[in-house]
Amino acid sequence: MHIPSMTLNEVLGDEMNWPTTCNAIDLLSEVEVILGRDIPTQEVFLVYGRNRLKALAKDKSEDVDVLMIDIIRQTNELDRLLALVQLAKHGDDYVEVA
Fold first, then answer.
1. Which helix (H) or strand (E) holds 41?
2. Pairing relation of β-strands 44-48 and 33-38?
3. Of 11, 33, 48, 53, which is the most exposed, with the fewest CB atoms less than 10 Å away?
4. Domain extent at residue 19
């Protein structure tokens, strides 16, 4: 399964441009599962779609729309990504690992 990936900056485009931000929200609202990947460590984590992944585990024949967003966790990009996902999906499934 090929999972398309974009950086947060590619998703947002010019973040000062409101229509571009709306386009990012539209893009994320159409995706069923959103993964994050920390660029320096390559660690992948779930941002949104826990219930969809559980359903997929039961019926592997279903198609699912997945998008991976590359960020640098040591910056404010994680907070920005979560805020964008909350706007698009009205919540997120991110869990901070200790």
1. none
2. antiparallel
3. 53
4. 5-89
